[in-house]
Amino acid sequence: MSHTIRIENLSKNYGKQQVLKDIDLTVGEGQIFGLIGPSGSGKTTLVKMIVGIDSPDRGTVTVMGARVPNLELLQDVGYMAQSDALYPELTGKENLVFFASLFGLKGAKLKERIAYVSKLVELDDALNKKVAAYSGGMKRRLSLAIALAHDPKLLILDEPTVGIDPELRQSVWQELLELMAQGKTIVLTTHVMDEAAKCEMIALVRDGGILASGSPDELKAKYGAADLEGVFLAAGRGGQ
Amino acid sequence: MRISALVKRIMLQMFRDKRTLALLFLAPLLVLTLMYLIFDSNEEEMKLGVVGGNDLLIETLESQSIRVENFESADNDTVLENDLDAILELKSNGAVLTLENDDPTQAKALLAQISQALAFQSQGAAEQNASAAELETNYIYGNEDTEFFDVIGPILVGFFVFFFVFLISGIGLLKERVSGTLERVLATPVKRWEIVGAYLIGFGIFAIIQTTIVVSFSIWILDMVMEGEVWHVIIINLMLALVALSLGILLSTFAGSEFQMVQFIPLVIVPQIFFSGIFPLDGMADWLQNLGRIMPLYYGADALKAVMYRGEGLTDVWGDLLVLGLFALLFIVLNILALKRYRKL
Question: What is the ipTM of this complex?
């Protein structure tokens, strides 16, 4: 299987605090890859480095054969940040149009993609409302729609399902599986264990390092745990 | 394409924020009007005390709507005690005018009217009293050169353009940093110079509108002194706005919140007022005077004063404009570099 993302020997410090230490990671093409860990473990820093909006002190990130950061590469990456980076003065549609335009979408294609992604996240009725009037869940969905708008090959989603109701969360997951079936690679972060169980491959992140990685079943077998929470505990003890 | 999407979004955001728009366009007019009212209360009838005046002179003065009161003798205290604007003493060998000069503009107008009246009188009285046209002028406050609003008016116009453009563009980009949208935008294939360029264009359009409004209002409504060409004034102000825009965006890099952006005002804006020529610098040490030369407003104010007050043209102030251009260029380059903090490319 070819690698979409290859991270080698990656370290990052903010001042004296080491946020990431010696990370090695590969994500295969067409996988849903989950980065699991508590907040503050370094997941967000790690995904930012994959996108190229933060730079490592040591080590390299290669995405689809290109060394990050790379502007052309960004054309094929859809990024959804942990905080909803939206313009509250603008309507949902204006936000979508703005970001999609930065990816060069225009005319009929732009309209078609916006109609498609807004329906997907069930925001088609609220598109003409200002984002300031959106609920937390709606903002999350709009962020997701923005990440999907330019039809990227690689999706990087930082806590995509926080604040979304269970029904919609399920439909988001259905969509992610559908996208995977289309051959897209998805990297997401989460701290919800049952969500992690739906990923094809996972990496357990704690204190800036990767405790263990593999498929959920592999990990459960390896640590003799009934669920991923048990794996996390066992792997954490093993590391100390 | 990408840059136009950015510009369009910036403008949309501004139009949605009606209060900020009002601040940008109306606040300078309000403050200018207040300053005008404070420094330039021209309309009031002037009171003149006359010692030893004749009927012809008094009649001439009164015909120019000056209230004349006769006194036996007078000194400076007479002026202050009787709330006079000036006192005119006619002597055999000439006349002495003592102006209170509380309001330089008013004093100047009064002086002009009195010398006119005296000239008129000496004409009528023919040869034998020609010396009456010789007028000696004293000032209780200030001197003959003071003409406050005329001098500071052009500087104020430049200052308000600079100040409001600085504040609004700085906070504009700061909001993007704080809310994470800047980072989100940098996760697209947009280039760093495109972001800086879009900000310059987007806010630049508002700066053009603001400059036009402020300059027109100052000249046609406040009747500010305007010896040179209006479009020269607009060009100078636009250069100032460009510097303010790029400086505001740059300093927002070093601010973590809107409040921290406001904290730059006493550090960056207020010193520029002191060195721009609103306050006389002649008495200051040389090295202190030269401090003004590192401040953009110094050059903007110099150019504006030259055009509006002294009636010079753009060819006379090209040096100032060049320096402003260099300031803007420097800040723009630094802005593009500052974005490297987010993305190396």
Answer: 0.90
Domain count across chain B? 2
For tokens 């940008």, the residue is B24
Q: Is residue B173 in a domain?
A: yes
Q: Is residue B121, in this structure, part of any structural domain at all?
A: yes
Q: Which domain holds residue B97?
A: 46-139
DSSP string, B232-265: HHHHHHHHHHHHHHHHHHHHHTT-SSHHHHHTHI
Picking from B171, B181, B193 by the largest number of A CB atoms within 10 A of its own CB, the best residue to mutate is B181
| Structural domain contains residue B7 | no
pLDDT digits (tens, 9 = 90+) for B81-120: 888 888 888 877 778 888 877 667 677 778 888 888 887 7
Determine contact, residues A138/A162, Cβ cutoff 8 Å.
Answer: no
- The token pair that represents B155 in the structure block: 């500087």
- Does residue A14 sit at the B interface (CB-CB below 8 Å)? no
Residues B130 and B193 in one domain: no
What is the bridge-based pairing of β-strands A3-14 and A58-63? Answer: antiparallel
CB contact under 8 A, A52 and B345: yes
**Starting at the edge strand that comes first in sequence, how are the strands of the sheet with A185-190 ordered?**
A77-80, A154-158, A185-190, A32-36, A201-206, A209-214
Q: Of B94, B121, B139, at which residue does a domain stop?
A: B139
For the record, the structure tokens of B49 come out as 């005390």
Task: Look at strands A77-80 and A154-158 and give their pairing.
Answer: parallel
pLDDT tens for each residue of B121-176? 776 655 444 444 577 888 776 666 555 677 788 888 899 899 999 999 999 999 99
DSSP type of residue B156:
H
pTM over 0.90: no
For residue B40, the distance in angstroms to the closest alpha carbon of chain A comes to 41
Residue A136 buriedness (CB in 10 A; 0-12 / 13-18 / 19+)? exposed
Q: Which residues of B touch A71 (CB under 8 A)?
A: 189, 191, 345
Sequence-separated (6 or more) residues with CB below 8 Å from residue B275:
B281, B291, B292, B295, B297, B298
Show the tokens assigned to A226.
């009934």
Task: Please name each of the domains of chain A with its CATH number.
Answer: 3-237 (3.40.50.300)
A102 touches chain B (CB under 8 A): yes
For B192, nearest residue in chain A (alpha carbons): A71
The domain that holds B118 is classified in CATH as 3.40.190
d(CA B69, CA B45): 13
